[in-house]
Each structure stands twice: as structure tokens, then as C-alpha cells.
Amino acid sequence: MTIDDFLNYLRYERNYSERTVQSYGKDLRAFESYFKNSKEHVPSWESVDSDIIRDWMEHMMDKGNNASSINRRLSALRSFYRFALSRRLIVKDPAHGLTGPKKSKLLPQFLRENEMDRLLDDVLGDVDDYNKVRARTIIMMFYSTGMRLSELVGLEESMIDMDACQLKVTGKRNKQRMIPFGEELKTELMRYMRMRNEQFPDAQTSALFLTDKGQAMNSEQVRYLVRKHLSMVSTLKKRTPHVLRHTFATTMLNHDAGLESVKKLLGHESLTTTEIYTHTTFEQLKRVYEKAHPRA
Questions:
Q1: Pick from 77, 80, 161, 174: CA 20 to 30 A from residue 192's CA?
Q2: Do the beta carbons of residue 21 and residue 80 sit within 8 Å?
Q3: 30: closest CA among 56, 66, 1, 67?
Q4: What pLDDT score does 7 carry?
């Protein structure tokens, strides 16, 4: 049983690209070198068992390989052994049922409170033209409610109850939820809607947020608006409406909001999805600790 037989199968029968074939070959030869030089002295591919493969994965992790790299190599090994089993070159597949390491979840990016204060109070604090008032209202809407981009684009004036300071959004799978908001956003919304109605009294759309031509704003236009203004106060690589959603959740948890409450406000199905923000706040807490404690 040779690697070259398998690579020719990929090349000529499966029509894999030469680059992919070479990548498979490199990964398989690395594993072959590992098991032949291991302390167990495994002589051949046929002698490999699942423990050897597990040891190999641990060896790669110890050398600093990330989960994606290890899983890619394990995938090559699985394919190789499935090929060998289909050709009756082995009687048992040692890679069957093995799972690689879980990929670590990237922590959500968010803006610090002083960055949001600078954006809303300094950059957009003293504005009186339609476009800037609209920009401030949209950014405050994301920051104050944590709503999704699609939910904001779908907002209509009829969905907002100014007296109760709450609004209704339609989220994923058409599920509706109520989101409360504060007096500051109420004031901003009333100012924006007054300007919008004065500027576009005959608007042909029920959408809350309109372009400077009186048409409903689409998702790309809102993304551009958010990216443009976040770049004025933040050096984050991602400057999207979703970052403002992350910022809302992180700010709420930093100010002692309960996890279950934040879950409901965000419209998450599972508490597990919301829990990632606790990792964010803990990482922030660690940085404060390391900076402040003399023996950290």
C-alpha cells in the first residue's frame, strides 16, 4: 500500500487539482515519517492503529499547529484509509470515528465605551442636516438595541411605540420580538422622523430609514454608513453593523445585565450563543488585571 497509488487515484480518477494532490501527499508523508520513527516502531501503514493517529494529533498540537491545520491533515488520512479499505488493502480503518480538535471560536470584536461616546457625542453630537442625523440615529439604534442589520432595514414607523419606549422587530425565521429603548434614543428617533417627514412628505415607502432621495435604505447602504463612521473612532479591522451588535451585548454584560436577559434582547435561540460574550468580558477583565496587579 503506497501513497503514490492513492495520489494517482485522486489525480486520474477523482480529477483533483495538482495542488490538492500535492497537499495530500505532503500530509500523508509527514504522518508516515511520524509513525515509522515513533517509539512504538510501527513498520507499515497496515500496522497503524487509532492510538498512533491520536498520538500524532497530540504531537502536532504540542508543536503549535492550530486546529484547522490538524483537521486538514486528519482529513487526508481519512481519505487515504477509505481508499485502502475500498481496495481491500486493509481490513480495518484506524481513522474511522476519530475526531480532530475543535476550532477555537473567535471572540467577537466590539468598540469600547469611550469610542462610542466619542462617536455619538463628538463626531455626531452637534449635527443638524438630514444625512448626519440619520447616521447618528442608525448607529444609536444598533448600539442601544443590539438589533441585526436585516431587522433595522426592515423597520417601519408603525413598529415603534414611543410612549412605551419599545419597538418590534422581525428576526431570523420570521420570529418577532419586542426590544425596549431609552429616552436618549427616543429623542433621537423623534428628531430624525420629524426631519424625514419634512424632507420627504410624499415618500413611497413605509421604511423608517430613507436615503437622501427618499427611498428605503438597503443593507449595503447601511453597512457603508456604519463603516464610514466607525472608522473615525476605531482601528478595528471589522467595522460593521454586527460589531455594534457585539458592542451592545458586551456593554450590557459589563454593566451587570443578566445573560438570559441579553439572550432575549438579541433574539438568540440558545444561551450558548450568548455565552461567547462572557468570554469577551472575561478577556477584558484579564487585561485590566494584568495591567493593574503588581504581580500579574
A1: 174
A2: no
A3: 56
A4: 95
DSSP string, 167-197: EEEE-GGG-EEEEE--HHHHHHHHHHHHHHH
* Residue linked to cell 504540542: 62
What amino acid positions are annotated as catalytic residues?
148, 172, 242, 245, 268, 277
Q: Confidence class of residue 102 from pLDDT cuts 50, 70 and 90?
A: confident
Sheet holding 166-170, edge to edge: 160-161, 166-170, 176-180
> CB of 100 within 8 A of CB of 71?
yes
What would the grid cell of residue 199 be? 424632507
Half-sphere exposure of 296 (CA within 13 A, CB side): 10
Q: Distance (Å, rounded) from C-alpha 147 to C-alpha 246?
A: 10
Burial class (CB in 10 A: 0-12, 13-18, 19+), 229: buried
**The model scores a pTM over 0.85:** no
pLDDT at 205: 95
Q: Does residue 212 sit in helix, strand or coil?
A: coil
Q: Among positive and negative, which fits the CA dihedral 289, 290, 291, 295?
A: positive
Task: Give the tens place of pLDDT for each residue, 279-295.
Answer: 666 666 666 667 765 65
pLDDT for 283 equals 62
CA 2 to chain CA mean position, Å: 41
Q: What is the pLDDT of residue 296?
A: 52
Report whether 209 contacts 222 (CB < 8 A). yes
